[in-house]
Amino acid sequence: MAAPASSEFRLGGRVLAAALLGTACGASPLPFNVLPLVMGPIHDEFGWSFAAISVGVTIFGTTASLLAPVIGGLADRIGVRAVGLWSLLAFGIVFASFYFVPGSLAGWYAFWLVLGIIGIGSTPVTWSRAISMWFARHRGLALGIMLLGTSLAAIIVPQIAARAILADGWRLAFPAVALLPLLVALPVTYFWFREPRPEEAPSDIKSADGSIAGLTLGEAIRGYRFWMLIGSIVLISIAYGGAHIHMAQIVGLHGFTPQTGASVLGVVALGILTGRVLVGILFDRVWAPGVAFASMLLPALACTLLMGTGTSLTLLMTGGFLLGFAAGAESDVIAFLTARYFGIRHYGRIYGMLYMPFGIGSGISPILYGAVRDRTGSYDAMLMAAIVMFAVGGAMLLTLGRYPTGEQRGHQNV
């Protein structure tokens, strides 16, 4: 018999802790929390525009996102443990090698390309499949806890990077931060991270014959829900990604120092953390698309607070917190709704397909923010567009309808 819901955290607690660390130290949060602090020094040293510097993370995000369905399918076939461990190791080594980036844009872009190729297996594409197999009744909370890893990274990584930059310049930030996946996450995931045995898996993820329930990728893409999720993810990722990457620069335009910018990034991380926990709890109790829609309305206020110049630090931190809260909710949405609407059997491939527009949108967004900054001298026009994208993207989730049952997820037309 499958384990009762009350024992999900007892059985899967160590796996959840390992997945949290894997998420925190993987390719999802680390580059996006280092680049905001090295962007200014790189601009000063090489004279590259902010848009040109941002192309690097776009190459990274696009490359990783295009490979997400492949890596997700690999995790479905051979298991998440092997994919996660090898990806963490490779990601840490390549990220540390950014210390040797040459003084040319071509070299800068080449490093990001390699990072995108090897890094995607260290993102929630891998970790969330295992968590969705261990947890059913408390899946929203468990995924929220797992995704707190990005919040922890956003709190800790900018501080590590800032100190490394002060000690020996922007190059040292990369190997200093790379110690996290190599010396922290990798040992813990090696000992604790695995998929459940049949007798450990919750009954909610199984069909009547005892097999893991779920749609195939082909069945999923023939339904309207898949495409509504795609549209929502594209809009919200474009609205948010550049705001995070350029946050230190936005704060600087209001007259504050880079160190203050790092502190605001920490507040963004606190918002992400709060959003992850609160939204995760609500997802287990209330219809998740409705919760997500309400959460996506918060960044409209955040964007208005970040516009202009001379805004007080308190208001900037409030805007950063609200943006982070929305980002925390959106990441929960992708992982939770993939399992809820499409099942677990082919979770990796379907999640990978939904992660693709998230990664591409997050990669394009910094270029758009950077281009607006280069052309107008501020980010206001892009922040105004982001208000609309957050609202429309959230509203699209309201069309998803009721959750299908385990048996219904075996048929393509639900």
Task: Provide structural commentary.
With 414 residues, this protein is an all-alpha fold. Helices cover 75% and strands 0% of the residues. It contains 17 helices and no strands. The chain has helices at residues 8-24, 30-46, 50-78, 80-96, 105-119, 124-134, 139-168, 173-192, 217-221, 224-245, 247-253, 258-283, 288-296, 298-306, 313-342, 347-376, 380-396. The two termini are 28 Å apart.
Annotation keywords:
globular; 0% strand; mainly alpha; 414 residues
Summarize the SSE layout with pairings.
Elements: H1 8-24, H2 30-46, H3 50-78, H4 80-96, H5 105-119, H6 124-134, H7 139-168, H8 173-192, H9 217-221, H10 224-245, H11 247-253, H12 258-283, H13 288-296, H14 298-306, H15 313-342, H16 347-376, H17 380-396
